[in-house]
């Protein structure tokens, strides 16, 4: 999505923030825990004070880059902050309205985060939708990471380190994502796919 490689170190915190379904409350809680004002968090993260305020009030749907910048500034394990007591029953549902949507730089690709917060360190799940011509660019994940892309509707072209492969409806492509990779809607209709990123796969030589 055009985010620099150094920001990739914060993907776990960003994913945990979004997967909580309580992004605004979480950002506010962490900001106050660090005794940061909105202005101070804005200065440290590079995110406008007005945007942070809107996020805390759940009045906006931030982009992936914005979530990463906030996570980097807060620099904390979101999973540890949000985890529930072990003796509580496990029934966790996120409504469509509360499912975080990450948007690509060109605005034509959207990733709905559907994975579970407790697996975010090694397994991340997304629903991808891409308009015709949409491009989703990603920097390299950690070494040995593998991505699985299952296309349900349309045609997607995946480029990894110069190699390209077309994936059509009903097909699944697995590829190493520990190097820059691009997903492009090469068709004439909207494309839909499920994306699973395994961050701790066996190291591939």
Descriptive overview:
The structure is a single chain. This protein is an alpha+beta fold and 205 residues long. The chain has six helices and ten strands, in the order ααααααββββββββββ. The chain has helices at 11-19, 23-33, 38-45, 49-56, 64-74, 78-82, and strands at residues 101-103, 109-113, 123-130, 135-138, 146-153, 155-160, 163-168, 172-176, 181-185, 191-198. The chain has a six-stranded antiparallel sheet. A hairpin with a 5-residue loop joins β1 and β2 (109-113). It is elongated.
The SSE order reads HHHHHHEEEEEEEEEE
Q: State Rg.
A: 17 Å
What topology, given as strand order, has the largest sheet? 1-2-3-10-5-8
Total helix count?
Answer: 6
How much of the sequence lies in strands comes to 25-35%
Biggest pleated-sheet summary: 6 strands, antiparallel
Shape: elongated
The residue ranges in which pLDDT falls below 50 over 5 or more consecutive positions are 1-10, 16-21, 77-88
Distinctive features:
6 helices; 205 residues; alpha+beta; 25% helix; disordered N terminus
Layout: helices, strands, pairs:
Layout: H1 11-19, H2 23-33, H3 38-45, H4 49-56, H5 64-74, H6 78-82, E1 101-103, E2 109-113, E3 123-130, E4 135-138, E5 146-153, E6 155-160, E7 163-168, E8 172-176, E9 181-185, E10 191-198
Antiparallel strand pairs: 1-2, 2-3, 3-10, 4-9, 5-8, 5-10, 6-7, 6-9
Helix pairs in contact: 1-5, 2-4, 3-5
In brief, what are we looking at here?
By secondary structure, this protein is α+β, with helices and mostly antiparallel strands.
